[in-house]
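agent: user wants the full assembly modeled, not chains individually. Plan: 1) parse entity lines 2) check alphabet per entity 3) run joint structure prediction 4) return tokens. Steps 1-2 passed, two entities, 612 residues total. Proceeding.
--- entities ---
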Amino acid sequence: MVRPRIGVGGVSGVDTLLSGSFIGADAGESKVPAKSFVGLELPPPITYDEKGKRFVLTASDLGSLDIGSSIYYRKIPVGEVVSFALQNDGKGVEIGVFVQAPYDSFVTADTRFWNASGVDMQIGANGLKIDTESLSSILVGGLAFGSPDFAPQAEPAADQAHFQLFADRDTALAPPTGQAQYLQLRFDQAMRGLSVGAPVEFKGVEFGRVTSVKLDYDATRQTFPVVVDAVIYPQRLGPVHRKMLNVFKHAEGDMDGARRLIGTFVEHGLRAQARSGNLITGQMFISLDFYPDAPKVAFDKTADPITIPTLPGSLEQLQEQLQRVVERISKLPLESIANNLDGSLRELRASLKQFNGQTLPDVKVALDEVHQTLRTANSAISEDSPQRERMGETLDELERMSRSLRDLADYLGRHPESLIRGRPKAASATDLEP
Amino acid sequence: MHRLRNLCGAGLLAVLWGCSSTPNNYHTLVPSEPVRDGGQRIQVARVAVPPQVDRPQLVVRQGQSGLAILETEWWGANLVDEFRSALQDQLGGPVGGGKAVLRVDVQRFDTVPGRYASLEAVWRLTRSGEAGLTCRTSLQTAADNSIASLVNAHQANLRKLAEAVRESARQGSCAQPA
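--- prediction returned ---
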């Protein structure tokens, strides 16, 4: 039925305002002659011999798309939405699109489609940034496609190929997330600043996010641990993931293998830590890293989701240490120490004054005297001093005297009678000859 | 009464006669003729003699083990001083300016009447700034039976000792007396 229409793509069928409605027909490709046809209320968006390719997009909902919504490639309209339908199981929508030649060759196996409807507004350090495809796409919605820069595959996609429709450009062009892996982390300290959606990083590479933060009660230890659930996409780590799979020889999606792998990592010191990403807002994120010095923790291989042991955050550790230092300082009896010190200093000062005023002059006098005495003694005992000579003579004299006394005593011992009778007549040497 | 007084006087005289002593004879080791010496001066610092002979009297040997002290034959000074002064006399007169110092340890000073007088000494000569020189000298001189001959023999021994010391000091090593 050809009638006047005002649509997104423009105004059509104006001539029927005058001539009245009529039925249009388009050629098909069937070789079998037919006599009965089904009439369409709306004209088919694509006429039969139009060059191009059809693709099927899968999305969770239709959004603001409609038949006729444009498809942009590098901001150039290259096609439109031709059909949409619920999936058979009702869990999504399949959208048929048509891309005109020659642009259809830009749709390759790596191409991503995303919803270009609405306005994308970002306020950042560079100021306000508004990103939109075209004015009409703001009103009625539109699609865009492109290839990630890293996509190496340039093979044009086949007709009727299936693609996934992403919500926005960034998610569309992001590396494939791969299979999700769920983790559970239990922290003993308060998790203020950790919100749902906070990133999970491994060695600084973001590869997951926090899905929930809950408070738990530990009956045995009587504490309130914070349980943080997180989802990670190991594939986002890039080449590491592939290489790890090769090294540990387990296929992607093998949950037991992944569990064993994480168990090995935990043995080698893999720990989760809540870190402060922004000191001003207190925004936190979860960091996974290896801490070989961390205390050993038994890894629960049966827990589901996988539980990774945690470490207190660096800021918390610092805070604790500071707290301890401050407590210790406040315990010091500073006042009495200061008083004692003051008293001691005063006494020292008094002692020093006394020492300087009285002891030192005395010592000086004593030293002078010692000096004088030593000089005198030196001159007295020098090699050829008269004192020394006299001393030697005196000693000789004394020696002689003691010898005389000894001789006398000897003589008297030999001849006690000589005191009365005088010296006895001695034999001459001549008489003594044997 | 008069007789008794005479008797007492005679008795007292007899007692006093008994108290009178025989006179001493003195001997010296220093020879009577002066020594002509132009050599270096050596100071004799210390002399030690065996205690048996270290007396004012002359001591002579009797037989194998006997000693006799001749009570009336004395040295001029005691033996140590006599020895030192005699040696000093031989070695260049009085002290003063002598750089070399001699210490003598007499080990034997035997007087055997009718046979000999012997002297055996170990002596040490030190000069300032040099290592000391320690030597031993044995001397023996024949003598006859008189005291004078024995003392002369000792004088000869001493002279030979002094010569040995002088010779050793000159050549810097122990020299035996001729």
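agent: reporting back. The first strand of chain A starts at residue 5 and ends at 7. The CA atoms of residues 26 and 32 of chain A lie 15 Å apart.
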